[in-house]
UniProtKB/TrEMBL annotation:
Keyword annotations from UniProtKB, A to Z: Ion channel, Ion transport, Membrane, Transmembrane, Transmembrane helix, Transport
PANTHER family associated with the record: SMALL CONDUCTANCE CALCIUM-ACTIVATED POTASSIUM CHANNEL (PTHR10153)
Source species of the chain: Litorilituus lipolyticus
GO cellular component: membrane
Entries under InterPro entries matching the protein: K_chnl_Ca-activ_SK, K_chnl_dom
Protein name listed in UniProt: Two pore domain potassium channel family protein
Transmembrane region(s): 20-44, 84-109
Domain annotation Potassium channel: ranges: 37-108
UniProt-recorded Gene Ontology molecular function terms: small conductance calcium-activated potassium channel activity
Length: 150
């Protein structure tokens, strides 16, 4: 087991990640990004009278909508700093939410189970080949003994 408990290495030498910890870590990073970039957008947008961002809740809503790619259009940035914050949230938010979605899909549908089964089958095949080689040696010895009896 690795010190941070993010993963463990199985008998096949493959890293198996602790999805609970990774999910919580992703949620924490996602939350901090929403709060901090929302605050940056709020500070940039509050000084402009024509901006739809009127309070911090609007800025958080803007960040949530941009990170999920919904973007209703009711709240949007008008300043360069606000647009830059939305751009960063869009790129990072989509990445984080996509990664979490992939983790859940993997757990629900079990795509990784196929890889595990393939590794187990390869290991079984190696064992079978080794047994066959031993049987072949014994058969060769028996053939020699039979030849010497004749």
């Amino acid at each position: 087991m690795e010190k941070t408990n993010l993963y463990r290495v199985d008998e096949f030498g493959v890293k198996n990640y602790n999805y609970g910890i990774l999910g919580l870590l992703s949620f924490a990073v996602f939350s901090v990004l929403n709060l901090s970039l929302g605050y940056i957008a709020y500070l940039a947008e509050i000084t402009v009278e024509t901006s739809p961002v009127q309070n911090y809740a609007d800025a958080l809503w803007l960040m949530m909508m941009s990170s999920t790619t919904i973007g209703f259009g009711d709240v949007y940035p008008v300043t360069l700093i606000g647009r830059a914050a939305v751009f960063v949230m869009f790129i990072l938010g989509v990445g984080i939410l996509g990664g979490v979605g992939a983790i859940f899909a993997n757990k629900i549908f079990g795509f990784a189970d196929t890889n595990i089964k393939n590794r187990e089958l390869r290991k079984q095949n190696e064992d079978i080949f080794q047994q066959n080689a031993e049987i072949y040696k014994k058969l060769a010895e028996l053939e020699k003994k039979l030849e010497s009896i004749k």
